[in-house]
Amino acid sequence: MLIPSRRSTTFSIGCWKTSGSASVSGAVRWAISPPSCPDVHEGFRQRLAGIFLRWRCAADRRARRGRATGRLRPDSDAAGLAQFIVAALEGAILLTKVTKDIAVMEQCVQHLKHHLTLYTTSRLSDGPHAAELVQGRAI
């Protein structure tokens, strides 16, 4: 459960121990720097921002093309989908690196593919083409 603190830049995820569960009791807390805080490595941040922007723009173009060809629902938010795809894949990459387990990436990609079928027309969601949407080939 994500619980915002009084300051909007800190969040807690609660983890409770239940009978028969191996869950850790307590809470995990982390802080997200607000946009106004100066970064120590501003040049590096700018380079990464450019990479992510190009990736999001490419996914956005594909989603718009998918809407135009009828493969994605007309009410699909191309920019929102593009940002979600990048964030989901980057999160999966990070978790895979931290755990050193490729199964984490495989599972995340499977869930991403399933989620993307919610935005496809019946023609696309009836088949295995959500994988192509993630890879940018379907649209």
Question: What can you see in these coordinates?
Answer:
The chain has 139 residues and is mainly α. It has two domains: 2-31, no CATH class; 42-135, Tetracycline Repressor, domain 2 (Orthogonal Bundle). Helices cover 54% and strands 11% of the residues. It is built from five helices and three strands, in the order E-E-E-H-H-H-H-H. A hairpin with a 5-residue loop joins strand 1 and strand 2. Helix 1 crosses helix 2 (78-99) and helix 2 (78-99) packs antiparallel against helix 3. The protein starts with a strand and ends with a helix. Residues 1-32 have low confidence and may be disordered.
Summarize, please:
By secondary structure, this protein is mainly alpha-helical. The protein has five helices and three strands; from the N terminus they run βββααααα. The longest helix is centred in the middle third of the chain and has 28 residues, at 42-69.
